């Protein structure tokens, strides 16, 4: 289990949520299968959007979530909408 996976599982359990509860709370945007894979380390690079959804579901701090992601987090490649250059 990755540090992020352990952190997410601890948050979920501390809220008393099952994997299916999280799926329901996020209106299906975070499936219970996907969350299970992130928690067990099978998915190593969840997106910032997915982590933000979990932050909202757990009423937690996004900065703490990102710190827990550490090396497991891959920032999305952003480009300038005007010139197309990477930012």
Fold and architecture overview:
54% of the residues lie in helices and 0% in strands. The longest helix has 12 residues. It starts with a helix and ends in an 18-residue tail after the last helix. It is mainly α. The mean pLDDT is 87. The chain has five helices and no strands.
Summed up, what is this model?
The chain has five helices and no strands. The protein is an all-alpha fold and 87 residues long.
Output the keywords.
globular; mainly alpha; 87 residues
List the topology elements:
Elements: H1 3-14, H2 19-25, H3 32-40, H4 48-58, H5 62-69
Helix- and strand-based class?
Answer: mainly alpha
Q: Supply the number of helical segments.
A: 5
Q: Please indicate the percent range of residues in DSSP E strands (runs of 2 or more).
A: under 5%
The residue ranges in which pLDDT falls below 50 over 5 or more consecutive positions are none
Oligomeric form of this entry?
single chain
The total strand number stands at: 0
SSE series: HHHHH
Average pLDDT rating: 87
What level of helicity do the residues show? 40-55%
The dominant shape is globular
Radius of gyration, whole Å? 14 Å
Largest sheet data: none
Q: End-to-end distance, in Å?
A: 32 Å
């Amino acid at each position: 289990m990755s540090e992020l996976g352990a952190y997410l599982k601890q948050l979920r359990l501390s809220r008393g949520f099952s994997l299916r509860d999280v799926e329901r709370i996020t209106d299906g945007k975070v499936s219970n299968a996907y969350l299970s894979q992130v928690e067990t380390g099978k998915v190593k690079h969840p997106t910032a959007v997915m982590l933000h959804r979990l932050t909202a579901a757990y009423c937690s701090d996004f900065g703490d979530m990102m710190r827990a992601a550490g090396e497991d987090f891959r920032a999305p490649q952003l480009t300038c909408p005007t010139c197309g250059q990477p930012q």
